[in-house]
Amino acid sequence: MVSAVVLASGSLAAAVATAAIRPATGAARAIPGGAAPHGRPGPARVANAPGGTAPQLHVSGNKLVSSTGAQVVLHGVDRSGTEYMCVQGNGLFDGPHHQAAVTAMLNWDVNAVRVPLNEACWNGESYVNPAYAGASYQNAIKAYVSLLNANGMVAILDLHWTDGAYTGPSAGCSSAQAVCQKPMPDAAQAIPFWTSVANTFKGNDAVIFDLFNEPYASRATGSTASGWRCWLHGGSCPGISYRVAGMQSLVNAVRSTGATNVIMLGGEEYSNDLRQWLSHEPADPDHDLAASWHSYNFNTCSHRSCWKFQVAPVIAKVPVIAGEIGENDCASGYIRPLMRWLDSESTSYLGWAWNADFNCSSGPALITGYGGHPTAYGFGLRAHLRSLAVG
User: Which domains does the chain have, with CATH numbers?
Assistant: First the structure.
C-alpha cells in the first residue's frame, strides 16, 4: 500500500489511479481436501487462536502448517511506520510498539502482524540518520518481532521501500533513495538486505519473509510479458534505470543463508494480479513459498467472479496470504464479503493499517487510538475476527 502519510510517495488518490488491473477469465480448480500438490501430506484443519506460542511455520501442499502439521490460518493487521519514519529522520516507529499496544491487537483476535521495512535503514546506508539505521534499526525490529512472537503472533517482514531512480509510469517519486514504492527491488541493496534479514531470523520460523511489497514491473516495462520476466529474473529491465533483483535472486539470497522461513511473493500490479504467478513461481529447494495478494475496493479484481477465476486457482496450488486488504470509504462493505470468501478458502488475510494517525479513508486506518478503538472501517474487521473466535 502507498503510505497514508503525505510523503514523496503520494496519496491514496494516486494509488487508486494506478492500481486497477484487468480481470482474468478461466476456470478455478478446487483442490481435494487433504491433497498436497507439492508432495507433502495434507494437514488437518484446526482453529488458530491468538496468544500462546507463535507457530513455527512451513508449507504443506497449499496450506501453512505448524511444526506439528496443524493448519495455520493467519488473521492480522499491517503495522505501518518502520518503512518511512527512519528514512525521514523522525525515529524508528510511528506510534507505540510496546506490550500494551500488542495487547490491543490481541483483543481483536489478531494472530499475525505484517511489519513494512526500509532497506536503506536496515542496511545502514549513508543518507539515513545513523540513530535510525544499521544496528539501531535492526535491533528495534528484532525486539518488536520478539515481542510479537512472545504474544503468539506470527511476524511478517515486508520489504516496502527500496533504492533506485524511477520516473516512469506510476512512479511514486523521482528520488533514487528508499523514500517511496518502486516498481521492483534493486539488486544493489535488496539482495544484501534479504541476506542479512534471513541470517538474523533463521531458526525462527514464526517469521515470514515478504520479499517485496507491491511490484508493478508491467507498468514500468511496458507489457505484461516483459513485466513478469522482470519480476522473476530481474537484471536489466526495460524502463527501469537500475539493475533489478528478480524474485528468483531474492529467494536464492534467503536460502543461501540456511533460513527455512516461509517466503511470500506478491504478484504483479501492486500484488493484485496473480494470473501468471504459478507459471513464474521461483524455484525453492525448501518448497516453502506462498503467494501474496493485495485486495482493495479500488482494484479491478475487486469482485467475487475475479477472486474465483484469478485467485482461487493459485489457492489450489500454494498458500495465498492476502497481505493487505482494505477500502477507501471509511466502511467495511468491501472487506466483509472478501473475508467471508477468504474464510471459505481457508486463506489468510491482514487488514491495512493499524495506524491511529492515518485517515480512515485515505490510510485506510483501522483504529483511532492505539488502545484499539476502531474506525468504522476497522469495526468491520474486528467484528469479523471476533466472530471467528467464537464461531
Answer: 29-94+107-320 (3.20.20.80)
